[in-house]
């Protein structure tokens, strides 16, 4: 459901969050639901403010029960340092609100029912989002930390798979809690949506990888200097396999050899990406014009 536009960004309320607010209303505790809504909104606006400060375009914000999704330009994923800063802004905002809430209690600015719930919301959302699983903020930090070891596609697969596993655990625990009368539907709904969101993040991995390959020129221009990562490939290896180990913030040189280990020539990352876009994934790397040493 579209809520409107704020700070130049479209705001949406996810159906699961709307259902959760409905449960609060039916239970007669809508005030708590509105507190949860405000906490989640401020969490996401912290992401927006940090992204804007770092020059990252923000498209829209979707509010979810466990935080939300701030959809930004794909270039954020291709800059691990910026991704860490933007991801950390949300939980940091919750910590600040938690401290302000404690200060308010000490100075008498306190509501006996909503005050403790406000503290609980901030603590739970901050802690939950620190888990190293996409689409949570901790998952984005985890993916950024893997950027120097594997492609953005593989890093996304790992973090999103963790998200699916954690979601499955939350669903099981929420179901048990519901059957035993220990919890309500909110935990079960949160687990279900987390699984859905993690699956969606996983499905986006190939597109992020294409963006990684296509954005290398801009990456070099932005950084000025990139370290070189050498690779060795047999001349009959397809281009699709060559690009799999390509990493962010490194420029790759591929030495091409034949089956007798004889040197045939070398290719730059730019030449391989151009060849892939022109001829497709299955072209053997040795079919491209090779550079002599």
TrEMBL record:
GO terms for cellular component: membrane. The keyword Amino-acid biosynthesis does not apply. InterPro entries: Peptidase_M50. The lineage of its organism: Bacteria, Bacillati, Bacillota, Clostridia, Eubacteriales. Residues 37-100 form the Peptidase M50 domain. The chain crosses the membrane at residues 12-42, 84-102, 114-134, 165-198. It is found in: Membrane. Keywords: Hydrolase, Membrane, Metal-binding, Metalloprotease, Protease, Transmembrane, Transmembrane helix, Zinc. Signal peptide: none annotated. This is Stage IV sporulation protein FB.
